[in-house]
Amino acid sequence: MTVTAYTLALLLDLFCVFLGYRFWFRPAPAAAGYGVPADPRGDARAYLSVKGLRDGTFGLLGLALLAFAGARAEAWFMVCVALVPLVDTLIVLRNGGTKAVAFGIHFATAVVVLISAGLLFAV
């Protein structure tokens, strides 16, 4: 179970780093994938940059906690971070995104993050 817990946490952290990179360097497709399309040449430029910074920072912080503080610290981090995709679910729904994206991507991500936290607490 330890390998599974660490592997899932590592993958989730790396995925956040990837999302941050994508919002910085491929913002239009990243926003479309998020569920609320935005034009990076217009007013949404700041939103896309902040989103990239947020996601990338969460990934790097998760990696640092996993490497230097251990499973319990990473588990608490995951519990706190699960709030982000839960709220992202509401953001997508309130801004014209589809229920499929809101629940199939964001809500499902929150569930996986909480499962990861549970596995890390069990280590």
From TrEMBL:
Pfam families linked to this entry: DUF4267
Organism from which the protein derives: Streptomyces rameus
Residue ranges crossing the lipid bilayer per the database entry: 6-25, 75-93, 100-122
This protein's UniProt keywords: Membrane, Transmembrane, Transmembrane helix
Domain of life: Bacteria
Cross-referenced InterPro entries: DUF4267
Full protein name: DUF4267 domain-containing protein
